[in-house]
Amino acid sequence: MMQWILPVVFVLAGLLAGIIAEKFFFKKLKTFVLKTKLPGSEIIFLSLHRMTFIWFVLAGFSAAVLSAPIKPDIATVLHKIVTIVILYSVTIVLARLTAGFVNLFITRSEGVSASLISNIAKTAVFVLGSLILLQTVGVEITPIITTLGISGLAVGLALKDTLENLFAGFYLLISKQVRTGDYVKLADSHEGYVIDISWRNTTIRELSNNVIIVPNCKLSSAIFINYHLPVKEITLTLNVGVDYESDLEQVETVTVEVAKEVMAEIAPELIANEPYIRFHSFGDFSIDFTLYMRVNEFFDQRIGRHLFIKKLHKRYQQEGIKIPFPARELFIPENAAKVGQ
């Protein structure tokens, strides 16, 4: 019985060391490093979450196996189990790190990220790690690779739709026709922000916060408008009409001044692109013109239109400029009135 005391001590020591490392040292180190705001530090600590505890427990268990009075063949099996668990945990950490840093790189270079690329990178690390694990425990991986190659055609035929969506997702990302963060409008009038491009679907969030799921193959062949291409900035257009007795020079000056005030509030960095108006028609009740004003992106059209109408209405009242409303004058001949009587 005494000979089992040391193995039990090793197991308990590994368990205790894992708890202390995870709850105290790892937590304090994470808080300190995150305060320094080192690039990628959050990804590293998220990847190592719970792993320090597992590794200390495995170290204690491995030491217990070495010191325990057990048969060599049983010790070999236990060592293989420990090796498998360690390699699998390392594979998980590497997969997390790969996905995290791929997302970080794409976000910094393109300004956006998509789960498709990070998931592919994570899957590649898992496959490679699994092959290394099998090779380590003595399993011959060459027949496995050959079998996978031969069965690839059959799997491809069985998963035709899935692979079609996968490659369509790659096409969308590589061609940069649509990216996460872009505002798009589909041919069937659905519109919203692209929030993710996965291996199968593209997820679009409407302004009402509803979510539209579009298969990648459908989106790659669809007709849609991307309001963020070639740039996010967009021109807000607004039709206005003024009374026929208005001084059009004054109307143009006042309207442009109001538009500049609105741009100073919502898009000060675009103020170099001065707003302008163009008169285009003599309407039934008014002389009509269109205002052209730049805003940062598609969604800003709403607040821009809201502020412009409020400010323009107030300014027109101050300047005495009238915005006519529809009116009709009816002329009734005398004989028609007599017939009616």
Element layout with pairings:
Layout: H1 5-36, H2 41-47, H3 51-67, H4 72-110, H5 115-136, H6 142-158, H7 160-175, E1 183-186, E2 191-197, E3 201-205, E4 211-215, H8 216-220, E5 224-226, E6 234-242, H9 248-266, E7 276-282, E8 287-295, H10 300-319, H11 334-340
Antiparallel strand pairs: 1-2, 1-5, 2-3, 3-4, 6-8, 7-8
Helix pairs in contact: 1-3, 2-4, 3-4, 4-5, 9-10
Summarize the structure.
The protein is α+β, with helices and mostly antiparallel strands and 341 residues long. It has 11 helices and 8 strands.
Describe, in plain words, how this protein is organized in 3D.
A 5-stranded antiparallel β-sheet has the order 4-3-2-1-5. Helix content is 59%, strand content 14%. The protein is elongated, with a radius of gyration of 34 Å. The model has no long low-confidence stretch (mean pLDDT 81). The chain has 341 residues and is an alpha+beta fold. The chain contains 11 helices and 8 strands.
Largest pleated sheet: 5 strands, antiparallel
What average pLDDT do the residues reach?
Answer: 81
Q: Got a strand count? A: 8
The Cα radius of gyration reads 34 Å
What attributes characterize this protein structure?
341 residues; alpha+beta; five-stranded antiparallel sheet; three-stranded antiparallel sheet; 11 helices; 8 strands
